[in-house]
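ESCALATION

Customer reports they have been waiting on this structure for their group meeting. Please prioritize. Original submission:
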Amino acid sequence: MDAMLPNGATIECSNLSSPLQVLRMLGAGGQGEVYEVNFAGESLAAKWYFPKIISRDTGLADRLRDSIRSSSPSPSFLWPTSLLEPTEESCRRLSIPAASFGYLMDIRPSGYVGAIDHSAARVSISLRSIVRACFQLSEAFDALHSKGQCYKDISLGNLFLQPETGDILICDNDNVEEIGKNRGLAVGTPGFMAPEVLLGKAKPSADSDLFSMAVLMFHLLTRSDPLKGQMELAIRCLDVPAKRKLYGDDPVFIFDPDDQRNRPDPDVHRAALITWPIYPERLQRLFQKTFGIGMHNPAARVRTGQWCEALSACLDSRLICPHCGQEVFAEAGKPIRCWACGSSIELPARLLVGKATVLAQSENELHPHHLNPFATESIQAPIGKVESHPSDPSILGLQNLSSHTWKAKLNNAQTVNINPGQRCNLSQLELIETHLGVVSLVR
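Update from on-call: job pushed to the front of the queue and completed.
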């Protein structure tokens, strides 16, 4: 199929001060095509809609205008920045319908991979990065809902991940709408839709977003579908009525503590059985709540803030197995055993930060919320980070990532300053007085 906009084409838009030049097509989907364009010397992305979508979704342009006026709720969204309405002369020259339009957005940076590729095990991403991605997803949806908007159609196809950092980008934001308006056609993606939306009992809302977000996070953490277990295997043909039963009429979480009808099959669903035990019970219980009582009671679903608290605590409990090098999450009061090699692991040194405990392991971080009990969990601006020595990984240091000088009390009673950017050897450390509070080391 030929692209709607040829490479090199110039498009003048009535609402823009400079014309767009089409550089190349980046991809296409069910709604339209996405192009890399040059606008006033800047490389951006433009989504251009198929005429059939414009004729069917009569509220699309108004939704985009509303989103552009409200601005992006979070940097995690590839948000529309300008509506593209071509002039009549441009439409004639390019042989496109006069009612054609699209929108402008930032171009996705290099280095991001599709969440669908991670779920299919086509890329390798650390557990730390995946937990960070889930945190950022919860944080982004919290910001969206706080602005009175809902996404309506989150799924693996709408999310991109940066494997090294866990940073995320959420695309296809043209279905976002003020909660309660529901002017668009989108209601969700099969397998991710809340049961009440799938069954036609309710319109998309913040509560249905919470269900879809939990499904997406379960995919990210386990590379598995939370509702596909032995009940799916009993279905000969997974047609529309079968999917309706599996996801709407009688959905059962594969790890529901009270209903074992849909447990994972040891041969077909190995990924779920391997990955689920990796995560702390605190995080598991949130899935059991959303996919348990929250399955048919939208108000009982886990809120974004609760997810952020549990995911942040998960990152704090992360350690590296000294026997095989795999990432493991410790649980307070329980013996630590590596899920990968089965070895027992001694509890490592801990950083006591207020009421929080952060394991002194490479790449674990200190954040303002550790020292301020009234601060909301956030992982975007750490004040400190544990690092291993480049020539001897067993030697750990704490780097000061803040702009303030810290005072460290060493185990020989000596006191030294740790300036911004400097590191302190943890083997010599007793405590640190940061600008936000005291951090103690317990061995």
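Sent to customer with the following note: DSSP finds 13 helices and 25 strands in the chain.
Escalation resolved.
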